[in-house]
Specification:
The protein is α/β, with parallel strands linked by helices. The chain contains 12 helices and 22 strands. Strand 2 and strand 3 form a beta hairpin. The longest helix is centred in the middle third of the chain and has 19 residues. The N and C termini lie far apart (about 65 Å). It binds pyridoxal-5'-phosphate (PLP).
Length: about 425
């Protein structure tokens, strides 16, 4: 028995077959059909424990960034474990509340909060709005006053730090749409302090995603702490510092720090600067869920051509867009180990009518028609980014708990897809 994902329980090869906990992947593919998302409860609980283990004497809170994977069953596990949620829309607010979260367990991020989004969040009494512009401060102030409430706010500052990640998932550089520039932050806080509908609560930053080194986090933390000092000097006191999410995972050969190491390093930064008493907030998404899920797919055809071998599978960019959107290298394994002798180099592609519809390129695989392949690391930004392009129905999701498989989202049907549309009357 060998773990497929180093350091994380839940997925292993037993006698040449891939298992999720105690159930063979092949069995799951037969029972629930493919493409299929499979999550391990043991892996989820392992990651939750990792993030919850704090630093002695220093309070920290973990708000799961649910855009990584918003399935209610997962949210429910997180809520029961005492995690909060980082949300970016009224839809995510409704999901968090449905999973049993209280307003006080929710921080609300995002650059484009509408009046109705803000109302819903104030109604729910969220813990904090992470505000990204001065017009947004004005709007939240006005909405709060109209509801005779006070909104707790943080400013999301843009520390202009290079997170050394893919440009599409880098958010802390000055040409990104996110946050308030470092230079304007103190002025913005002073404006906020004068608004009667607002209460200043904290400061926030989030510099990007899939960050695999500590250095950019530490660099950003010190810039945030410079601001905390400057605000302190202005008599503006904060009750927390939010260092955002962004911790990377090992998809191929990356060696990201552990959650523990990140928490320890940033706690150390805060202590050095005399702010060790302030609770630190974190907003991890990917690092909580990526390695807890796999995407199973069936091989439809093997198609050799003069230039390339194609392995055509029944999953597509509509199920997992990371390879084509972010040039992400996602690992693929055959659920039944075949002898290396049969291995060939393939582009693994889906049925969608786009050349960008691929799951992996130039991958050496020993594979036959009808085999089940598993994409590892698919628990984050997989199902949550799925679409209906080409009228494909979105995949089912199952959560495995030892020898039990719970269907946590049934496969979408074509009737589900058409239910939202109407035809013109016949005239
Ligand atoms: C996406 C996002 C996160 C989570 O990022 P991960 O890389 O998945 O950890 C946290 N906070 C904000 C504001 C985000 O936009």
């Amino acid at each position: 028995m060998s773990d497929v994902i180093p350091g994380i329980p839940g997925f292993s090869f037993r006698g040449g077959a891939l298992f999720c906990e105690d159930i063979a992947a092949e069995k799951l593919a037969q029972r629930f059909q493919t493409p299929l998302y499979v999550y391990s409860r043991a892996a989820l609980e392992h990651n939750i424990a990792d993030w919850k283990r704090g630093i002695e004497g220093t309070p920290h809170r973990v708000f799961y960034a649910m855009k990584a994977n918003g399935n209610l069953a997962l949210l429910d596990l997180f809520a029961r474990a005492g995690l909060g949620f980082d949300i970016v829309s009224a839809g995510e607010l409704a999901r968090a509340l449905a999973a049993g979260a209280k307003g006080q367990d929710i921080v609300y991020s995002g650059v484009g909060k509408s009046v109705s989004d803000i109302k819903a969040a104030l109604q729910a009494d969220v813990c904090c709005f992470n505000v990204e512009s001065i017009p947004e401060l004005d709007r939240i102030n006005a909405v709060a006053l109209s509801m005779e409430k006070k909104a707790r706010i943080s400013l999301r500052v843009n520390p202009n730090v290079d997170a050394k990640t893919h440009p599409y998932i880098s958010t802390g550089l000055k040409n990104n749409k996110f946050g308030i520039s470092f230079e304007c932050a103190v002025e913005a806080y002073k404006k906020a302090a004068a608004m009667p509908g607002l209460v200043i609560s904290g400061i926030d930053c989030h510099i990007g995603s899939q960050i695999t080194e500590l250095a950019p986090f530490i660099h950003a933390a010190h810039k945030v702490l410079d601001l905390v000092e400057a605000l302190d000097a202005e008599g503006i006191a904060l009750d927390h510092i939010d260092f955002g999410g962004g911790l990377g995972v090992r998809y191929a050969d990356e060696e990201p720090p552990k959650a523990q190491e990140l928490i320890a390093a940033l706690t150390q930064c805060a202590k050095e600067r005399g702010f060790g008493h302030l609770p630190l907030y974190f907003e991890p998404g990917r690092s909580l869920v990526a390695q807890t899920g796999m995407l199973l797919m069936r091989v439809e055809y093997l198609k050799p051509t003069a230039a390339k071998n194609f392995c055509i599978v029944d999953a597509a960019m509509t199920d997992m867009i990371r390879p084509t959107l972010y040039q992400a290298q996602m690992r693929l394994v055959n659920c039944i180990e075949r002898s290396e002798g049969a291995a060939l180099e393939y582009d693994v592609v889906g049925p969608v009518c786009e050349s960008g519809d691929f799951l992996a390129k130039n991958r050496t695989l020993a594979v036959c028609e009808d085999d089940i392949l598993a994409m590892t690391g698919a628990g984050a930004y997989g199902m949550s980014m799925a679409s209906n392009y080409n009228a494909r129905s979105r995949a089912a999701e199952v959560l495995i708990d030892a020898d039990k498989a719970w269907l946590i989202r049934r496969r979408e049907t074509i009737e589900d897809q058409m239910a939202l549309e109407s035809r013109l009357p016949q005239v």
